[in-house]
Amino acid sequence: MEQLKHAADHTKVVVRLPEKWLNMYSDFITKNAGAVGQVEGALRSIAYIIPGRFRESELASESLNSSVQLLSLYHDSLLTRALAHSLQQKQHQSPHNRYTRYYCSRSPTYRRTATMLQVVQYTELLLEMMAKRRGEKTRWRVVVLLEAIKALCRLVLMRLTNSRPLLSPPLPEREPMEEKAEEETIHSPPSETTTFSEAGSEQWTMPRTSLTLPPLPTSNDISSYLMSKVLTADDIKPPKALLHRVSGIGEAAEIMYILRPVIYAAAMSYWSQRDEGKRKADWRPWLLGISIEYAARQLAKKDLESRRPGGARGLTQLEKEELKRRGWALSWWAMRGTFYENVTKGMIQGFAKKLQNKPLLDMVGNLLQDYEYLWDDFYFSTSTIGGVAVPSCPTPPSASLPGITFPRHPAFTNHPLSTYNPSSQPACTRTTPSTNKMRSKFKDEHPFEKRKAEAERIRSKYSDRIPVICEKVEKSDIATIDKKKYLVPADLTVGQFVYVIRKRIKLSPEKAIFIFVDEVLPPTAALMSSIYEEHKDEDGFLYITYSGENTFGESS
To answer: Three-state DSSP class for 252?
Structure first.
């Protein structure tokens, strides 16, 4: 009996282990929310290098992308539970989070349905890729089935919210966790140097205690703080009053908007597989789909003007944001169906060819060519509601072109912690590796007034470009770049600029390269615009030096 009792106790301990591990994982996620967001962003960035590297790379890349999105969704649920206890102290939430969190806590059915909708959106492109292996007929069946499942979920959500318009995404967006401030111990030796903040106020380090006195706040900081405490009309409304109920024409318009993807997918499936038809170049599915969406928008506007006091002026902030998002979504019809095949595709191909063999710009051309395969062969790469699903290789910030906005996965725009926020961290971080102070040859060869005039002329003519001077560290044995002066897009990241330098000097993949701004290694995720604003020279240029791994000086 003693042995049987011992075995039963041991079994109970073993059964409880998975629950214990899950609780430990949950605690780790909630206590390290910022680090979790950075890890998720790093995993997504791996998809940059996968496409085209090996056979069927798009399937592997999209599998990685979908896995990261599902993991992020699970992390969101953990963080939402952790934030539930601190929401009473949190004075301000976005209207979207207030509304969606209200229904998630009030209705378990809403939460499960919204989660299912998000899961389908995160995996739809991967499922389409897998179905394509079994033929076009199977692929279109899967596409129509997935669109029907999403439409059913949206209709259920509309019913649970008492006929209120849909929001995208239907779940609360991730919010930064408030971390308790801890006393910092300064290990660096006392210094009498003075650091100047952006506003010009001093940050002084006391020589004896090594404690740092923070700079005085500027008037802008005070104004921003006061404005953050101001309550608007939407802040005092109950959550469900942030979206008004629709009925009659407005309800019919919302149902049309929900069913449009199913109708369009079914029409594409029918006409693209007909032997006697024009297949993807047939205009009938495209005209049918855009007509339904445009008609739904016009009916919603008509209902708004006739039933709502004040018309569009009576909309809440949340309603205005959703209406604006749906308006921009109409532009995506330029990337769908026959309009893409007959019009947009040729324009993009011609534009990509013009960018070939041009510094920096050829990166955009290569990116367009990578996306072209996905736009041509997969329906879900451009067609969905609530943020167009991104193909597996995510678009870097530098890929924004006039008149063209690349698709982004919903998770990229809905998770603030997974993206770089220049205001949340310094543009450059002091690290152990450093280079010896060097004199810029460009400064020696050109007088200050000439450099300043040239920088001002560049900034006035190209407001979205940054004048950068890139030079090699003198003692480095790395190749010398053939061009010092660059006009860098403001939304280019440091990592992408490093890629440009590697390509210019034709550096082999096994060799490392480091770039420095004021003897500091900038973070690769930082935007060049933030680096420029913090470290630009008096003459208006941003001076960057590069070197190999053998030129680091001794750490101070």
So the answer is: helix
Which residue is associated with the tokens 């451009």? 382
Lowest mean pLDDT among 3-12, 299-308, 331-340, 407-416: 407-416
Q: Is 61 helix (H, G, I), strand (E, B) or coil?
A: helix
Tokens 């963080």 sit on residue: 79
Residue 401 in this model has a pLDDT that exceeds 70:
no
Q: Pick the closest to residue 548 from 511, 497, 498, 503 (CA basis).
A: 511
Over the chain, what is the mean pLDDT? Answer: 75
Domain boundaries, the chain: 1-85+95-174+239-389, 441-547
- CATH topology (fold) of 441-547: Ubiquitin-like (UB roll) (3.10.20)
Q: How many CB atoms lie within 10 A of CB 521?
A: 18
SS3 labels along 284-318: HHHHHHHHHHHHHHHHHHHHHHHHCCCHHHHCCHH
What DSSP character marks residue 215?
P
Q: In this structure, what token pair is assigned to residue 497? A: 């600029």
Instruction: Give the pLDDT of residue 229.
Output: 67
What's the CA gap between 381 and 409, in Å, rounded? 10
Give me the phi and psi of 473, to 5 degrees please: -65, 140
> Which two three-digit tokens encode residue 204?
């002084």
Region 223-243 average pLDDT: 76
Q: Taking a C-beta distance cutoff of 8 angstroms, is the pair 519, 434 a contact?
A: yes
Q: Give the Cα-Cα-Cα angle 166, 172, 175 (nearest 5 degrees).
A: 145
pLDDT of residue 384: 63
Q: If residue 470 lies in a helix (H) or strand (E), which one and from where to where? A: strand 465-472
Q: Rounded to two decimals, what is the model's pTM?
A: 0.59
pLDDT at position 143 over 90: yes
Give the whole-angstrom CA distance, residue 403 versus residue 316.
29
What does the alpha-carbon distance between residue 129 and residue 63 come to, in Å, rounded to a whole number? 10
The residue with greater pLDDT, 10 or 267, is: 267
Residues whose CB falls within 8 Å of the CB of residue 479, separated by 6 or more in sequence, listed in order: 472, 505, 506, 507
The pLDDT of residue 503:
84
User: Beta strand pairing status for 194-196 and 202-205?
Assistant: antiparallel
Q: Tell me how far apart the alpha carbons of residues 417 and 423 are, in angstroms, rounded to a whole number.
A: 12
- 187 token code pair: 């290990």
Mean pLDDT in residue range 232-237: 76
Q: How many CB atoms lie within 10 A of CB 422?
A: 15
pLDDT of residue 395: 36
